[in-house]
Amino acid sequence: TQAKYLHSGVEIYHGGQVERQEALQVETALAKALQRQEFQVYYQPLIDAHSGRAVKIEALLRWKNPTLGMRSPAEFIPILERSGGIVPVGQWVLNEACRAAATHPDLRVAVNLSARQFSQGDLPGTVRQALQASGLPPHRLDLEITESLMMQSPERAATVMGRLKETGARVILDDFGTGYSSLSYLARFPLDGLKIDRSFVNALSETSGQAIIRAIVQLGSTLGLEVVAEGVETPEQHALLKQLGVPLLQGYLFGRPQPQLPDTPG
Ligand code: C2E
Ligand code: CA
Ligand code: CA
Ligand code: CA
């Protein structure tokens, strides 16, 4: 049994070593990815529930490294947040997204923001510059933030948010309902909209799931907030969400993230 124990110990040791090496490889490659032009912005449509037309797009970051391949944002965004690399990368995404949206006559564009971008550098200045350089009308830019971003430093977040709104861009609370106090954030921060988290759309087959969405829609309309549902994958979900009065829908049913804008004229 001792030999077996030792053997398994060695296995575990090797496993950990390989994982650490891979993580280090990812980190090293990520630090050079922007300069090496390995990032790309993909766009996913947000659909008007009634007309079925794309009215907005969400910019989603993609990273493809020649040796490491395509990596998921769920893996590399947290690393960029830790290293601070998300500040220049986020600025690049903002510029790309505004430039792309400005080529279209009326599409709006949503860009995800990280806590680091709030706490470091001049985010409102960066936004203003991206708008000016692209010529995109400010009301066509949405900035998506999360509750965890606001929680880290609520006072700073409120100040930066106020200055962001002075640029004319709008601020949307993403993943609504997943944190612990989403409701209190709606009252405390100058938000323009909320995006109902995918987990609630998944629960639509249960009556309680429908009741939650109905309540969020009502809340949104009382507070004058734009309401979006994300993660719509089936025609049944589409029909229910439309019936529940959710005006904007996003999900694989309508289109996956892709490198081109939806129905670009010409
Ligand atoms: P998110 O902001 O909640 O973005 C929505 C995610 O859900 C995207 O994953 C999108 O591809 C995926 N999705 C869209 N429709 C469906 C659907 O019908 N079903 C399912 N299962 N998934 C769907 P993605 O692109 O992998 O991004 C993951 C997360 O990474 C984003 O979640 C966001 O938090 C972060 N992220 C992506 N791009 C950026 C960026 O430029 N900056 C920052 N700070 N974060 C980003
Ligand atoms: Ca988002
Ligand atoms: Ca989301
Ligand atoms: Ca999310």
From TrEMBL:
Domain of life: Bacteria
EAL domain segment(s): 23-266
Signal peptide location: none
Protein name: Uncharacterized protein
Organism, as annotated: Deinococcus ruber
